[in-house]
């Protein structure tokens, strides 16, 4: 088959390449904007997603995944007694400050049972998990190494006044809307969170009075040397979530209601419910969907302008050809299909390199910036659809031009 | 049998508020298998008449019958199909597709006429051989001389074996000896294939290729057609 569309497209190669570059960047803009939106949204729930828990029990005053009230540790033990619960584990979330090389970073500490099954902080080895049983040990995400000024496993720093040693590295955990994550055991986390504002002061509750020892003289970096091990969890220690594994075949909605009624002041979510509500919260709260959507729309418009311009010029230059086709008995559809085929080739030949470019950029940003440009098969197909609509839509202008061609043009000298 | 018949063709163009009458009542009958030349001064309405006879323009008044079918009543779509199935065109400026090789230009015409498949390439090659361009099949139009381009156009017009060939000033862009060759080729192939041919021309040196000549002047046929063949 002879394809007039393809031949005409390639007739002026430099112009074709410039056009393709334009389409490629339009495709990239759309892909990157939607990819960042998807990556951003997904990042807010990576920890929920990777957990093995069926149900997450939180305070009834929960605002979002990281903003909620604690409840006493004893409720975790109570949850284990609820009918249909196979396993219950605590997760505690708190904030703090990370000191390293005299610099300060805010952090979010996650305390969980390293010997448990239900919480898994990303892609991490069993050895690293076991190492968390040691006092003042922690895991961090590889993408946060620079922020924490950590060169590798074994490096030390401080959280508030307490020492911390990085015993392992993980990946795919960090939320883009949060402080940098630190993962440790419940006991360690409790110590870090409650070390509180008493910086430099050690107070003891005596009989009827409080004795405080001023420790300001102490060198900050010497803190590591003489700190007592963290205390075991008390029944009233604050925890943030109870992670629940249901017994096989258990109806999760009914189990949720049982948990809520047995544990006072709580609200239970299935894993998917917590993911959905957290993602919705951040999308609405930040308006990021709107901003990135706007970027994507600009991309589509730029692409349309480029394609429309190229097709229109191509058609205008080849009006006599189209007139000749008409005289020779080409139907309107024959003629439109030449233009549509051109636009589809442009779409396809802009899409493929555009997507490859995004894939490369995404790999780079994920490795160096911790920003994931998430391109799923579904979104790749979606962008292809947008690209095709963009190109075919632009063809309409060119088709308009062709329908108005004076048939007498073929006889002009 | 009459292949091309026109009855009282009139055509006016509006330019601004003034109406210009270009054709003022043309009656014409071209027998099947004839090669008819139409001559006349520039601006006399030859191209307009050809466009009407080919169903590209609709006349202000009058009827056209091609191969026994009245085409003035047909819809635009039906006219397109009629042209596709029955008419081959040759233009003054060749109107080849510049991005396609000689062979592809003819293949495209065959495709347009609904012929699909690998056989098209052989048919196209055969047609190019018939116009003496068997060794130029892969040349782009830009790499062909004027005469060669018009030969490709002739091959293209013959693709799909139309009964009617309509040519508007096919030699105007060629030097006279090349023009003669082209017309002789057209004459030979048309006779060979039994086509009815209408050629519009200025060129007095090609008159002896015609079976009959019609003169158009100021929108009217100037005099009785003369049977050229009869004069020889
Ligand atoms: N589309 C048109 N609109 C207005 N006037 C036209 C149009 N086409 C042709 N004419 C006029 O009709 C007359 C005949 O033109 P044409 O048929 O091209 O003559 P020829 O081919 O004999 O030189 C000319 O005066 C031309 O200006
Ligand atoms: Mg003319």
UniProtKB/TrEMBL annotation, chain A:
Coiled coil spans: none
Pfam family, one: FtsX
Transmembrane segments: 16-37, 288-312, 344-364, 371-399
Domain MacB-like periplasmic core: 21-261
Key words of the record: Cell membrane, Membrane, Transmembrane, Transmembrane helix, Transport
Location relative to the cell: Cell membrane
ABC3 transporter permease C-terminal domain boundaries: 296-407
Keyword presence, Transmembrane: yes
Protein's membrane topology: Multi-pass membrane protein
Predominant cellular place of this UniProt entry's protein: membrane
Identification of the protein by name: ABC transporter permease
Automatic annotation (TrEMBL), chain B:
Tagged with keyword Nucleotide-binding: yes
Source superkingdom: Bacteria
Domain ABC transporter: residue ranges: 4-231
PROSITE patterns referenced in this protein's UniProt entry, alphabetically: ABC_TRANSPORTER_1, ABC_TRANSPORTER_2
Keyword Nucleotide-binding: yes
Cross-referenced SMART domains: AAA
Gene Ontology molecular functions: ATP binding
InterPro entries: AAA+_ATPase, ABC_transporter-like_ATP-bd, ABC_transporter-like_CS, ABC_transpr_LolD-like, MacB-like_ATP-bd, P-loop_NTPase
Entry coiled-coil feature ranges: none
Keywords: ATP-binding, Nucleotide-binding, Transport
PANTHER family: ABC TRANSPORTER (PTHR24220:SF376), IMPORT ATP-BINDING PROTEIN (PTHR24220)
Name used for this protein in its record: ABC transporter ATP-binding protein
Lineage of producing organism: Bacteria, Bacillati, Cyanobacteriota, Cyanophyceae, Nodosilineales
């Amino acid at each position: 088959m002879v394809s007039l569309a393809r031949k005409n497209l390639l007739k002026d190669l430099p112009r074709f390449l410039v056009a393709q570059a334009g389409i490629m960047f339009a495709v990239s803009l759309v892909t990157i904007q939607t990819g960042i939106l998807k990556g951003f949204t997904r990042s807010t729930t990576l920890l929920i997603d990777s957990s093995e828990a069926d149900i997450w029990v939180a305070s009834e005053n929960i605002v979002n995944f990281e903003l909620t009230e604690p409840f006493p540790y004893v409720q975790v033990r109570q949850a284990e007694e609820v009918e249909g619960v196979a396993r219950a584990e605590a997760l505690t979330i708190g904030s703090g400050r990370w000191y390293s090389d005299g610099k300060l970073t805010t952090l979010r500490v996650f305390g969980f049972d390293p010997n448990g099954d239900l919480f898994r902080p990303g892609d991490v080895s069993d050895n690293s998990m076991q190492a968390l049983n040691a006092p003042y040990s922690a895991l961090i995400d590889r993408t946060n190494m620079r922020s924490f000024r950590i060169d590798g496993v074994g490096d030390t720093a401080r959280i508030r006044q307490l020492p911390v040693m990085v015993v392992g590295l993980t990946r795919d955990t960090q939320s883009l809307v949060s402080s940098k994550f630190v993962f440790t055991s419940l006991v360690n986390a409790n110590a870090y969170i409650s070390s509180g504002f008493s910086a430099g002061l050690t107070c003891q509750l005596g009989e009827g009075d409080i004795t405080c020892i001023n420790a300001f003289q102490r060198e900050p970096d010497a803190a590591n040397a003489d700190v007592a091990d963290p205390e075991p969890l008390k029944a009233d220690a604050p925890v943030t979530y109870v992670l629940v594994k249901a017994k096989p075949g258990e109806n999760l909605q009914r189990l949720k209601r049982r948990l809520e009624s047995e544990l006072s002041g709580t609200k239970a979510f299935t894993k998917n419910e917590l993911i959905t509500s957290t993602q919705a919260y951040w999308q609405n709260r930040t308006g990021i969907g709107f901003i990135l959507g706007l970027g994507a729309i600009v991309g589509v418009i730029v692409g349309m302008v480029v394609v429309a311009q190229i097709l229109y010029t191509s058609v205008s230059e080849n009006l006599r050809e189209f007139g000749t086709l008409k005289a020779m008995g080409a139907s309107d559809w024959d003629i439109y299909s030449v233009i549509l085929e051109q636009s589809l080739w442009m779409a396809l030949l802009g899409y493929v390199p555009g997507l490859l470019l995004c894939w490369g950029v995404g790999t780079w940003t994920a490795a160096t910036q911790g920003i994931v440009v998430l391109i799923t098969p579904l979104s790749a197909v979606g962008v292809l659809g947008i690209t095709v609509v963009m190109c075919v839509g632009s063809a309409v202008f060119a088709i308009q031009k062709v329908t108005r061609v004076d048939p007498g043009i073929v006889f002009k000298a | 049998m009459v292949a091309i018949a026109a009855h009282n063709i009139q055509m006016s163009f509006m330019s601004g508020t003034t109406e210009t009458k270009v054709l003022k009542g043309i009656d014409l009958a071209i027998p099947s298998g004839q090669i008819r030349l139409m001559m006349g001064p520039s601006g006399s309405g030859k191209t307009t008449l050809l466009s009407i006879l080919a169903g590209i323009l609709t006349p202000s008044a009058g009827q056209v019958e091609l191969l026994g079918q009245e085409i003035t009543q047909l819809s635009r779509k039906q006219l397109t199909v009629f042209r596709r199935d029955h008419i081959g065109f040759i233009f003054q400026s060749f109107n080849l597709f510049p991005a396609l090789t000689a062979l592809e230009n003819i293949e495209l015409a065959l495709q347009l006429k609904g012929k699909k498949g690998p056989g098209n390439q052989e048919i196209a090659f055969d047609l190019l051989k018939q116009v003496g361009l068997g060794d130029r099949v892969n040349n782009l139009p830009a790499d062909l001389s004027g005469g060669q381009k018009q030969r490709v156009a002739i091959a293209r017009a013959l693709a799909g074996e139309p009964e009617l060939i309509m040519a508007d000033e096919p030699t105007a862009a060629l030097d006279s000896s090349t023009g003669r060759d082209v017309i002789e080729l057209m004459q030979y192939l048309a006779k060979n294939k039994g086509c009815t041919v209408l050629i519009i021309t200025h060129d007095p040196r090609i008159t002896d290729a015609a079976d009959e000549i019609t003169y158009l002047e100021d929108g009217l046929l100037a005099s009785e057609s003369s049977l050229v063949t009869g004069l020889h």
